[in-house]
Design goal:
Cyclic Phosphodiesterase, Chain: A, 6 helices
């Protein structure tokens, strides 16, 4: 599919090694059994670095290829749950795997390198449209990040995580009643860098590199 000069939203992510990926998939499957499909539930396990609309597929893919060799694999430790209550982007309860603090500095450096590599290629008009519905829920710093970088969560304001799903409030207690007593704990690695394009709000693989 030729996507040059058509604006699409792309997601730049780090993907976990097989053991952590399987753990996340198991939690996703159990969530689906409990309450059915939820936002992000069908997404592959990943840690989002950057999301933005881009008008030129080929230029973005080249920037990804140029950036990827400098990205190292990252050792991570998952230490239970974190909940983004009333998530400002979704209005739901977003259940995520909590990363121990030891990897945060390295991850933030990788994110800033990613932004330097690709953010200048974004569609700035489409970026503002992407956040129009949630603009009122963003902090002033997050709004400034949208204007400056195309993404609200950057640097110290970014909470790296691996999502299970963003749960409808009506279903939340069913999920949390089971999950709070069964938190994730594992030492693993973020072992791949990947680029996805969103098609009908679902991620479709564009490129992937082993780190």
């Amino acid at each position: 599919m030729n996507q040059v000069n058509q604006t699409h939203t792309y997601v730049l992510v780090l993907e976990p090694a097989r053991d952590l990926s399987q753990l996340v998939m198991d939690y996703k499957a159990r969530t689906g059994e409990l309450v059915g499909d939820q936002l992000y539930l069908q997404d592959p396990p990943h840690l989002t670095l950057y999301v933005a609309p881009f008008p030129d597929h080929d230029r973005l893919r080249q920037a990804f290829s140029d950036f990827a060799p400098a990205v190292p694999a990252v050792d991570v430790s998952i230490q239970g749950w974190h909940v983004f209550a009333a998530d400002p982007l979704t209005g739901k309860q977003t259940l995520v795997c909590q990363l121990a603090t030891g990897a945060l500095s390295e991850l933030r450096q990788i994110q800033l390198s990613a932004i330097r590599a690709v953010a200048s290629l974004r569609d700035q008009i489409a970026v503002r449209g992407r956040y129009s519905d949630s603009w009122h829920a963003l902090t002033s710093a997050e709004r400034e990040n949208v204007e400056s970088y195309g993404f609200p969560f950057v640097g110290e304001g970014w909470h790296p995580h691996i999502s299970i799903a963003s749960i409808d409030p009506a279903d939340w207690e069913i999920v949390w009643q089971e999950m709070q007593g069964n938190p994730p704990f594992i030492d693993s690695q973020l072992a791949r860098l990947a680029l996805y394009v969103l098609e009908e709000n679902l991620p479709v693989m564009v490129d992937r590199v082993d780190l």
